[in-house]
Amino acid sequence: MASVSMSSQFLRVLMAVLTFSLLSACKVPDDPEGTTEKVMDNVLRVGALIEPLDQADAAAVTRVANVFRATPEFVTGDPHTLFAQLEDGEIHLVVGRIPANTPFTSDIALSDPLGSIMLGDHTDDRVLAVRKGENRFLISVNRAIEGLVE
Amino acid sequence: MTHDIPEEIERKLRRAARLEWWSIFWLLTIIAVMYFAMGSSQAMKTAWIEDTLSLLPPILFLLARKFENKPANDKYPFGFHRVGSLAFLLAAGALTAMGGFLLYDAASAMILQEHPTIANVTILGWDVWLGWLMVAALTYSIIPPVILGHMKKPLARATMDKILYTDADMNAADWKTGLAGIAGIIGIGFGFWWADAAAAGLISFDILRDGLRNIRIAVAELLDGAPRELDSTDVHPIVDTLSTELRKRFPGHDVQVRETGRFVRANVVPSKGGELSIGEARKLSSDDQAWRLTALGQQLQDLPDPSENNERSIR
Question: pTM for the complete prediction?
């Protein structure tokens, strides 16, 4: 029967794809622009939106730096400059009371929440910003800050 | 205007209706699963929209079934056979517009070099990359439609149902969409940001092509074109058979065959001067409306014998 042979053929393709992906799962997902490799055992360039950073943000940066065995190096500036630098890969992380509903979401990627912040009369999740599409780096950041939320 | 449908066809139509209800059920589960795994992947979004759109043909089929056999009335003296054709055109239009939009979306993501971000999630204490969940959701989204598609196709051929056929065809081709989506996600996994947009582009191209082909088939029917094959824009062989047979019975006449839904209607017309002259038309209608009457036909209950060379007038 045509339909049977067709679905078995399809299953074989699917199995091949899945096996292949599982074999290489250790390096998946990877960073298209290689942020993880650049930061590892090197310098973590952090854009700070406020100075000095408050305790929660500072703790998050320390944890991330430790995971990559990197030395944090701070850059300060206005949000637009820092996010533009993040987009270009000149800095690796932007911190400083960033809410999860930041209007910059179309240009940057956000980490998991690491606490909360008061904005006016409501609270929002506090997050870190990383470069878009650097999925391996983002996952390492998420794992580093895991447990910061009480 | 009720029409006797053989019990065999009627049974197949009922079975098709049952399959379409099942399709709607499975599609709803797929749409829900895909929605929760969608994240910010372009290919996932495109595949999700395609799955949402594929709800349309089953719904249209069931609606058309409901209306098709309604008896003719004063307002619709020819009955409702073509309700399916209308639905088909609407569905084809929606499909085409959506395909175009998704293709634009994928192309602009490619040009703007948007890097899709897919993070990790914690499910039941497990920290997994959301990409793997997307692959699982896409795999699930392939299985029911492919099976249902293969079950619906023979029914569509037997009942000459265009909506059902398109639906079955789209279902059966769903594995391509799913596989393209999976390839896109795995591509992102390996750090190829463009894989996702490329996969989305391929899927949307497929949607657009389906839509355009369906529009051509629908237009042919709504413009009283000759009946077409289900899977192409070629003229159906029934046209030749009917024309040959009818010409034998009505020498000196032409045969026009058209399609209303799954049914076929043949007209036998004088080969020359089939149109009503305005003088004749004036006998029937008031002066200022007479020009609108171009032809007058008569339905036959019994066919004349082909052997006796009768000069029966059809006008």
Answer: 0.80
